[in-house]
C-alpha cells in the first residue's frame, strides 16, 4: 500500500485504548485494539456502533507478559505472583474471565493457546 495514500485516511490520536474506542465509535471511524479493551467497552456500553472486522491471525497477536523488576525491594512477591500466573488455577481464571459478563465471551486465551477458541470469535458474535 502506498504510504501517502494511507496517510490521507489514517489519523493518530493520542488516547488510551479505551478512549480511542469511544472516539472511533463516536466518529464512525475504525480502530485497532485488543480483545480485552473492546469487550470491556462493550460491557460498559460505551461502544454501540463498532463491529469486529478482523480478529486474531499471525498479524494481530497481542501476547501479554508478566514482568518482574529484579531490583525492586519486594521482587519476591512479584516473582511469586508471576509464578502463580502460570499455575493451573490462574490459567483457569484467565481462560474463563469475561464468560460471566453480559456478552459471555472470554477476554483472554490461556498460556497454551495464542487465541481464544474459535467458537468465541468476535467476528461471528458481534
How is the topology of this model organized?
Blueprint: H1 3-9, H2 17-27, H3 35-44, H4 75-85, H5 88-96, H6 122-125
Question: What does this protein look like?
Answer:
- The chain has helices spanning 3-9, 17-27, 35-44, 75-85, 88-96, 122-125.
- By secondary structure, it is mostly helical.
- It has one domain (3-125).
- The protein is globular.
- The protein starts with a helix and ends with a helix.
- The relative contact order is 0.13.
Which structural class do the helices and strands define?
mainly alpha
Sheet having the most strands: none
Strand content: under 5%
Q: Can you count the beta strands? A: 0
Tally of separate helices: 6
Average residue-wise pLDDT: 86
